[in-house]
Amino acid sequence: xxxxxxxxxxxxxxxxxxxxxxxxxxxxxxxxxxxxxxxRAGESGLVGxxxxxxxxxxxxxxxxxxxxxxxxxxxxxxxxxxxVLRVKGRVLDLSGSPVAGARVEIWQCDANGIYLHPRxxxxxxxxxGQFQGRGRTxxxxxxxxxxxxxxxxxxxxxxxHIHFQVERPSDRPLVTxxxxxxxxxxxxxxxxxxxRDPRQRDSVIVRLEPADGIEAGSLGATFDIVLG
Length: 228
What we know:
By secondary structure, the chain is of the alpha/beta class. The chain is built from three helices and ten strands, in the order H-E-E-E-E-E-E-H-H-E-E-E-E. Strands 1, 4, 8, 9 and 10 form a five-stranded mixed sheet that branches.
């Protein structure tokens, strides 16, 4: 099926604000120093998913509704603005073996370009209270995970993306980001461009496909994560 760039429902992302510009500048400046230049491949031919910056908006609060459905928040009558996106995939090691029991977290901005974070919810901008903002799940025995969220939107300084953190026992977390294939802003995103190895860069850019068979009007994406 061909990639369909479905427009996000809701207001356009807000104009850049000073605090956001400063935080993104600091994040981008350190990104090129933190990323490995080469990809390590296992016997399976898989390439490790690249590590990326945690960013300035990692959730500070994980109580309440933090399940893998970010579109519906407990206690809210309506669902989140935006196009529903179902992201699924598997967490693997370099040999291709599934990683069971790994904790997978995601966080992203809402359809208005605002994160659920105290640093990003001021200056009179209105956040979508029906969007959960962050979610958490655990991989199954075959390494599979799934989230129901919204299609990511751009905001000043960044192309659309979803943050991921994967952690398994006795190992340091892998922090990375998932990007959308075909987005024109991908070419100008400093954090994405900092992934020098083309194999690793390609591994975090995914195609969005219509998923009407699962949920009317929704999109689907497959994002496998390889712990190297």
